[in-house]
Records
---
Amino acid sequence: MLAAHADSKGRDTYAFDPISSPYLEVADDLRIRTPYSKTALRELHGIPWASWDDELRAWRVPFRAYGELRRRWPAIEEAARRNEPEERKRRREAERDSEAQRTTRSRYAERRRHRYPLPAEDLPPMGRPVATEQYGVVVFTDVSGEVVEPPVLAAFNPHAMRADFDYAWGTWRSATLTELIKTWPARHEAGPMEHSRGWWQPTLAELRVARRNARIIERRRRNRDLGRVS
């Protein structure tokens, strides 16, 4: 009896202040269907007596809980609209053309060049693994005579901004697992000076990360080669 009376009052409240939304259907109770949204789910879970009906594929809310549904509805509807397929597609396209995406693509293109600014008077040993500010543990193979222009440093290599250094482009490649295993680790972590010049002797922790990544790369390469043979 109490529930029936509360439902009757809820119907009156709905009639006086209804929710008009494509996500809400009115029947013997209130039925909500929205695109999947964690926010909408959190709000619906907070409504007394609300329950999911698997057969109807909808949330059912009795009229006695209409007041709480009305209070939470703006958040539910906004979350539902944001998760409509067309809206999600629009956001993805907007993000694809965003400044952050353009910066990410530029950084990826810069990485593919396998070049790195090195202080001309403080070069790393060629052919030996060293840690770098941008690309982890790598092996430098050559240093060109080309001076790095300041705009490129500022855009992609913020560490290389010391006024007392002239920077030249160094060519790098990934270190092999064998090279990484043979590399003797540094006893201490690199300090501010080493980070500002952009390279240093890797610590054991840095070598462990590099070795793990190298193992993954070699395993993938081996599996790819086996696939070609078969």
---
Amino acid sequence: MNTDTNTLQKVALHHIHEQLGAKLVPFAGFQMPVWYSSQNAEHQTVRQKVGIFDVSHMGEFLVSGVGATDFLQYVTSNDVSSLYEGKVQYSCLPNGKGGIVDDLLVYRLGQESYLLVVNASNIEKDWNWLLSHKPEGVEMRDISAQTSLFAVQGKLATDALQPLTEANLGSMKYYHFIKTTFAGVPDVLISTTGYTGAGGYEVYVPNEAAEKVWQAIMESGAPQGIQPIGLAARDTLRLEMGFCLYGNDIDDSTSPIEAGLGWITKFNKNFIDADLLKKQKEEGTSRKLVGLEILDKGIARQHHQIFDAEGNLIGEITSGTQSPTLKISIGMAYLNTPFHKIGSEVFVEVREGKRIKAKVVKMPFLG
């Protein structure tokens, strides 16, 4: 990853994060706030009140034109035909070799008109992959560099945002979106996809309106105790919910079936890798992504190896942390079958010569 601060990209509100005293770190080619106060404090703010994340590093592509639906049906694993205007879908891009190019969100804006939201680290890769499969008549536009994205998350998110719009935010269902005037800015896209499990909204605005909208949210949410939240807390929040992070839990070498994403892999259509993935679903895979709860003292971290009671290597941690909510160490890991079964006891090597006991548990970690 590029860590030269002179060549890292900056989000539109970079100066705001500097003013707020954020610790800025290289992430996915951007200089991003990892925390403002502390990871644990920010995590608890989102779980108990409401926080705002600047996730403007994410990528946004517009896909439209005759054949756009058929195109997306072929390149994504989920069933795009089930979408209607105002509905969002979680999906992935199979890579033609059984792996995943990226996971993404698909928004249906209208007939043959879609917004794709992709991971920041994969913007160029995803764009080139989609372009290589795009048929004549379909138009693609990369609006990533012109778009700011704020995630306002927590049980008080509706109270914080409702004064800024006439739209009834509280009536919005999970994985839906609206376009409305927000904080005086017209045609703001507001969705309810979440990545924290705490409830809340995503607010997409053009860069030129970003500072106005950010300040309006901070002022409107002040009575609810809104605070800016960095990427470190975002990671622990998503891990408590068992949500995959591309580059950790899924990548070009993992299949959606192995990763427990069979629910976004629909075989009522033809798509890239459909035959291979259908075979995996029917016959099973040699490993599965599972949740682990650490039973001994110690913290599971990414790349820690996992062994059975006889000392055989059976897997590896993909994401691990000390859960700020549960006060225990949790992790996600690929485990060879049959060790992936709920209740299985395994041993995580946290350092050379030291292995700690863990058990396979159902995700999400938070009930």
---
Amino acid sequence: MARPQKQSRRRDEPLTAERIIAAALRIADGEGDLDGLTVRRLAADLGIGTMTLYGYFRGKDEILDAMADHVLGRMRLPEEPDAGPAETLRAVGHAFLEMMRDHPSVARLFGTRITDSPAALKGAMEAVLQRFVDAGIPGPLAVRCYGFLITYAIGFASYQRPRPWGRMTDIEGSEHHRQRTHYYAGLPRDEFPVMVEYADKVAALSSNEEFSAGLEAYIDSTLRLLPRGGS
């Protein structure tokens, strides 16, 4: 009897396209992939019939495009007036990573679909490129920086997701890291001499510090390509 009551409460809530997309993101992000997101499951989560859902979206493809619009179109960069190239690249790199971690399904969207919607392009590409140009990064290099940072964030977030000790900074995260270090240190030394020797470093590959280290290395290399006077 509990289930019908739950659906009844949901039916009492106004059904909007925005509410549908929020539910779709909740399902996809919760599982970390898009395969578990179906029209039937989404309708059940909302407590409506599938035909009602088709009144808002013609199918899963339109839902996926709307999910991309929702996340990418709302990407917000930190306000840093008069920030130079290094500060801007750093801010964008971390903003991309946070977006991927907040919405793991977006990484899959990037890996399986091309998003051509104006909202997504404006929020997550045009605005970022403009920020780079405003910071003194020439247009062609700004495009290259965008390409590196978005793919770096997608790859790192995908690698970090199943390795929670990398993104956790509390006691639980430290315990996960300790257990993983113990695992690597316990490998047969004759077969894995380097991994055993540097077990703690191997366990830290998915850490936030590793992301920052890679980002800083890229920033340093990019600054050398700027016209004299850029910093």
